[in-house]
């Protein structure tokens, strides 16, 4: 923060914080994004309030992108596939339960994840992500970690 970096990558910045502090931290990240900084972060099991503070969401399971896009479109995408988030339920918890490996039913869980990933893979968003990654790869000798960051989560004020 002292050097005012253009890119701020935060790995689970809210872990260990109480809900008030976590919300304040995400609010501050939104303010930084509003000032032109690129703020990317991973959030593990966010509260519904924290989840609502993000505009872009990337869900990854079994090494594949399950969904990428805005948070409202995620609910619509899963609903279109027949997986509706119950009313008054935290969407993050819903996605985790749906995409996690279920003990004793691991193969069924993997099959479900493959099915959902395959559905996402034919969307325009998935094609755009692939195109971006392809051009990034062509523009450099190797695909660096940073080249993958633009397809990660970003606070609402970023986009």
What distinguishing features does this structure have?
159 residues; alpha+beta; 3-stranded antiparallel sheet; two-stranded parallel ribbon; 7 helices; 5 strands; 17% strand; globular; ABCG_transporters; transport; P-loop_NTPase; transmembrane helix
The number of strands is 5
Low-confidence parts:
140-159
Biggest β-sheet, characterized?
3 strands, antiparallel
Helicity range of the residues?
A: 40-55%
**How many H/I helical runs?**
7
Measure the end-to-end span: 21 Å
Helices and strands, in order, run as EHEHEEHHHHHE
Order of strands across the main sheet:
4-3-5
Rg measurement, Å: 17 Å
Strand residues, percent? 15-25%
Q: What is the count of structural domains? A: 1
- Structural class by SSE content: alpha+beta
What is the averaged pLDDT score? 82
Shape: globular
Organism: Dryococelus australis
InterPro entries: ABCG_dom (IPR043926), ABCG_transporters (IPR050352), P-loop_NTPase (IPR027417)
Keywords: Membrane, Transmembrane, Transmembrane helix, Transport
Domain ABC transporter family G: 44-100
Secondary structure elements and pairings:
Elements: E1 7-11, H1 19-34, E2 38-42, H2 48-52, E3 54-61, E4 64-70, H3 71-80, H4 91-99, H5 106-121, H6 124-139, H7 145-148, E5 154-155
Parallel strand pairs: 1-2
Antiparallel strand pairs: 3-4, 3-5
């Amino acid at each position: 923060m002292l050097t005012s970096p253009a890119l701020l990558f935060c790995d689970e910045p809210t872990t260990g914080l109480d809900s008030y502090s976590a919300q304040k931290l995400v609010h501050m990240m939104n303010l930084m994004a509003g000032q032109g900084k690129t703020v990317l972060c991973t959030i593990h099991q966010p509260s519904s309030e924290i989840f609502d503070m993000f505009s872009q969401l990337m869900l990854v399971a079994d090494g594949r992108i399950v969904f990428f896009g805005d948070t409202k479109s995620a609910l619509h995408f899963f609903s279109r596939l027949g997986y509706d988030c119950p009313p008054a339920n935290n969407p993050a918890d819903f996605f985790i339960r749906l995409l996690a490996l279920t003990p004793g039913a691991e193969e069924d869980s993997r099959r479900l994840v493959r099915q959902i990933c395959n559905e996402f893979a034919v969307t325009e968003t998935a094609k755009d992500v692939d195109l971006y990654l392809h051009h990034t790869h062509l523009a450099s000798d190797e695909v660096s970690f940073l080249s993958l960051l633009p397809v990660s989560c970003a606070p609402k004020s970023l986009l």
